[in-house]
Specification:
globular
Length: 440
Amino acid sequence: MNNKTPSPALQRRSIVIAGFGQNMVLTFVTTFILLYLSEYAKISSAGLAAVAVILAVAKVFDAVNDPIMGVFVDKTRSRWGKLRPYILFSALPVAFFSAILFCLPNGSEVGKLVFFSAMLLFWDAAYTACDVPFWGLIGAAFDGDERTRVISYVRAFGAIALGLATLGGPWIAKLLSFSAETTAAGWSRAAILISVVGMAMFLLAFFNTRERHLPPAEGVSLKTLFTTFFKNKPLYLVLLGSILGFGRNIIQAGGAVFALIAYHNEGYFTLIGAAIIVGMVVASFLSPLLLKKIPAKRMMIYSTVFASVVYAAMYLLGFQNLYVMMGMIFLTGVTLGIFSVVQTTMIADAVDSVERITGVRNDGLSFSSLTFVSKLMGSLAVLVFGLMLAFTGYESGITVTPQMQNTVFLSITIIPAISCIVSIIPFLLYKLPEEPKEEN
């Protein structure tokens, strides 16, 4: 293996391409798996209820996975570092299990569900093994303004990958069906193609990057790792502020249902989703420039206050004019993009700060908390939107009333506005500790 350090430009490009490929695979799986199961694997309504339970169990399994993976990473010692080996050895399992989820065997429905459950848990474990080290590698391979720039590019191209996979997935499946209609085999071939291409891109993060500091040969004890982690107050404040700001994710969680209730056309969510993605991409490229002039803490607070104002204004303006609505949604995407970049930057800064003071670098545990909190924010968004939807009494086929429309609209505007305001409190308390002064 060539140990020559790649140029900063090559490392930067490789990480961005790797993140693009990873997001392409993740988006394809999470966006189309239910469609594949219901329409092409012919799972019944009762079977889909079982799938919902399976997915919920997988979420719990996923939550446990993240910190465990973080410990494994921080305890790893190799000539490649502690993060890059997982990039190398997770790519093939992720590609395989992502594809196999769309290749359910013929047989009884029970057999299909058992097979799906097992493959989903394997997929979840494999994806965690690639995701936690990937974000840790960004912190370990870059620092300062360069790291902020890399994070912003990864977030921006991740959003582009999300849009391309969401819009292009059905077309690829139809093209690979080799018939007038989209088939189950077409979806299987599309999953194989996207999984292989996406994780091949992901491997560039192993081959073309280097960790700035290799872990000590003697290793770090679990006690030291956890002691350092639990003493990292700035990290906890970022995590708490992120969780309290879960309302940012409600539009993504309930956008399709809102489009159906407000405009009687769930296809309008394509426009809403596009507005969010464009806003995130613009903000992700803009964030490094802003962070050169405004410290990360202030940027987080300013952008969060602005987000709260945007959500409240959106409620006051109403949803009747779709173009006005898309403009406001675009602004929420901008605030979400800034949040994603600044959040990751603040966590990486907290890891650096603790390492300077204690000599211990716990990328694995710290960035596993980032991935865990991101999943928790999504889960809370789904839960709150689901409860609000249940409160309206809405169900398929029912006559939609103005009260239903207003309640659902409130759930994607006023609740996020309140959530953002509350989330500012932990960020106000965020402060990196000063390094101890050397005695003369």
